[in-house]
Amino acid sequence: xxxxxxxxxxxxxxxxxxxxxxxxxxxxxxxRIELLLFEKxxxxxxxxxxxxxxxxxxxxxxxxxxxxxxxGSYYGYRVYELExxxxxxxxxxxxxxxxxxxxxxxxxxxxxxxxxxxxxxxPSNCLxxxxxxxxxxxxxxxxxxxxxxxxxxxxxxxxxxxTRDLASGVTNEKRxxxxxLMEKIPYIKDLGITAIELLPVFSFDPSDSPFxxxxxxxxxxxxxxxxxxxxxxRAHPLTARDQFRKLVETCHDNHIEVFIDVVYNHTTxxxxxGPLLSWKGFxxxxxxxxxxxxxxxDVTGCGNxxxxxxxxxxxxxxxxxxxxxxxxxxxGFRFDLGxxxxxxxxLAPLDFPPIFEEIESDPFLxxxxxxxxxWDCGGLYRLADFPAxxxxxxxxxxxxxxxxxxxxxxxxxxxxxxxxxxxxxIYKDNENSVKKSINFITSHDGFTLIxxxxxxxxxxxxxxxxxxxxxxxxNSWNHGIEGxxxxxxxxxxxxxxxxxxxxxxxxxxxxxxxxxGDEVGRSQGGNNxxxxxxxxxxxxxWDQDSCDYQLRDFVKKLINIRKDLLAIFSPxxxxxxxxxxxxxxxxxxxxxxxxKVNAPDWSSWSHTICYSINQEDKGSAIWFGLNGYExxxxxxxxxxxxxWVKVIDTSFLENHFNEKISNQHEVExxxxxxxxxxxxxxxxxxxx
Length: 688
Description:
single chain, alpha/beta, eight-stranded parallel barrel, six-stranded antiparallel beta sheet, 16 helices, 18% strand, elongated
């Protein structure tokens, strides 16, 4: 029998001590807990059962130090005489996964369906925690890039999907893994990206999906601390953290930040009929929103909602954030359905949610960038008044208004005006809206860019839900024929529209986010919800015959322009509208135009927007003309600081950059195209 000591309530989880390992877990309503130690990860019977009684409890936390235990030990818990809140489906013989485990074993034996029969014990198919190191990330050798918000360009990708395709050139053992992605960082750096945003890398349940399919995206967390085992090369529970660290080290060495999509709004345990794996067994009401009828409340669409207003749930979220930021080196977090974390008792929205106050005041997280979705599935949408000070938000209005304008809808120029400035009217802090607004046209959740201009409808039958899943209102347009076509004129229009949307995305104030593969024309065949498609629909494309390399070069050019002229295209504060109210050190200010200079047309039927960025009273540094009309149009030009040079014209499918124009007073823009003119002095300052 192993020698034990009382141990301490902190740190949570399993922690190496001088004498062995300290175990600590929250279980407010338990009267007795068993700590089970296993010799091998798939063993059904423990080699040691250690009993925790009242003397091992401090407040809501149970703790014990076990001597002789070390890194690599497998463990789980049994919780006894818990006063369950929901029904009587709790089984004290179930082996529970430590919610704070930093490593997980038992994947070969794990089965989700038996865990849903909560009245039966689960020793033959449970997951187990693994004692592991808690070393801090080596920031001395691999420091954070620390890009300012206005110098940040985000690329959203899926770790597994990015290198799963054979054409990626990654070896078989590394395809679809952290190490495989590491080999592709030079590609991402070459694009000019400054931050990658990874779809969920928390350990998740791939079997939480329709029969015969796989949960590919990973919005089904089993644990908030452990890197997903499915992304590990030559999988062993103790290698996951090391491999994830190596990925982050490589990114930092290439001046690329790493953001991760964190799912703190729900877990894979579902509602009262869902599996009993971890959180439920330690105290349902401590982690989930549950009403007086003992029902799980759901504003996430996944059966349950995390009660971030409860102190134990908040503590676990904070511990998880610190783990990823300080132990694994992550530079930023994107909160999936983040506004759901602001809900209090009975799901009432809180103006000062404690979880965001605690995150923003935590010194261990002070260097971290924070992003959130401002909506949840319960109808709460708080973009202008998101209840946090330092969190930037996905700006769905930017996406929708850009799509509508280039689709040719009416009543689009007036709202687009605000988006092109950085959405100052949406955000309360007008000057700093450019640091709040995450601008995007596409994301994992919806059509890819090429599909957006190729399909009017979604095609999600392969998801097994009779095409019911996925967004129905996409503001997409096929331009005359549904899906792929061999008609050259139609493909030309679609290519033009992709360039229009990408130009507005990258050269508009705010923080641009691109979707994996949009730069090379990656299609999902019209599927706008590939959450369960771990196949070519959900993977990055690398085959040369499939990739649009001209579009990729166009994107690289756009990013270089943005970086070379940050004060114009990505200012630290929104541009003023008068020369004497300029907010930039260089004296830049914005002026709206139409077919005639200083005569913008905001009418319902207008399909054109033009504007210039001027420098004090010297003249215009750049001029942008957007023609969403079905015919070409001529536009009068303002006076430039020096002669005009045409830098971008999306009507050319082959990349034509930096062309001198003979007519300095007027320019013609083809239908559904945009033109960027630049004063020669500024054009010559571009690095490419």
